[in-house]
Amino acid sequence: MEKLTHKSVIAEGNELIAIFMECKRVPTSPEIPKYYVPPFYYDRDVETGIGMLKDFGCEYFPEDMLYHSDWNWLMPVVEKIDTMQNYQFTVRMFYHFTEILDNKNRTTIIDREDGSGRLLSTWKAVVEFIKWFNSQTQS
């Protein structure tokens, strides 16, 4: 599986997803964004030095977010895309490519094939979709 090694690419994509998911920006310096990422759609315990604790969300810098490397982070984003605007969009994930369809207009919006594996391919397609969606809503 291809690894994303360019930190700014990861950070830029993860920040775009955090904004799309309506994560609140935490007051820090304007040059260093930080976001509060709420707990996801499942009960999750986190192992700490004092035992297992409930995950109540946390503050993250975009380069520390795990949207690009953890299905538990990425799937709520996929679910949001699938259910937004009265189920207008569908994310279809295959092993080496991901496509995002516009069900209303019966067109393929994103067709991301790069051989990087399902997780990374889906992350890249989601980032590409968010950029496309933002350009549509700003026009």
Provide the low-confidence segments as ranges. Answer: none
Calculate Rg over CA atoms: 16 Å
The percent range for helix content is: 25-40%
Distance between the termini: 36 Å
Structural domain count: 1
Class inferred from helices and paired strands: alpha+beta
Number of helices: 3
Name the strands of the widest sheet in spatial order: 1-2-5
Strand content: 15-25%
How many β-strands, per DSSP?
A: 8
- Major sheet details: 3 strands, antiparallel
Oligomer: single chain
Folded structure, characterized:
The protein is of the alpha+beta class and 139 residues long. The chain has one domain (7-138). It has three helices and eight strands. The protein has helices at 7-20, 71-87, 118-138, and strands spanning 24-25, 35-37, 45-48, 51-54, 58-60, 89-93, 97-102, 107-113. The chain has a three-stranded antiparallel sheet with strand order 1-2-5, with helices on one face. Helix 1 packs across helix 3 (118-138) and helix 2 runs parallel beside helix 3. The longest helix has 21 residues, at 118-138. It is globular.
